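Researcher: Next entry in the queue.
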Amino acid sequence: MKINTKDEIVLKVLKKMDQRSLVGQEKYGATMMEEIEGEEKDLNRFLIDVQEELMDALLYIEAAKRCLSDEIENAMINRMNIIGQNGNDGLHYDKDLALDPYDEDHALDMVLNDIVKDIKVNEENTL
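Model: Structure for this entry, 127 residues:
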């Protein structure tokens, strides 16, 4: 099979799929086509496999969300420590604009934007 795409993302995914296929062949001793042709798996078994993989994917998503939440919390704590070291008590922040603890995307954006601003200010002060 000749691959015509120049898209590096697609090529990377195809390479991963190929590697994953080799792992599966080693683990199960057959290709998926061989499992079909040898009647080792039928449609129902493939659907059960898909269902199990999707359940695993949900667990991975939930675990990743937890990791992201922990990273955001740590970044915010570090940010507040920096603010405190600079003599800022944080009293000027508007309480009506307090973050929803479940809005991780917004919180991460705010923290990262503040960090980038601090880096730019520090660079300007050192020049």
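Model: The chain has two domains: 1-45, 57-127.
Researcher: Noted, moving on.
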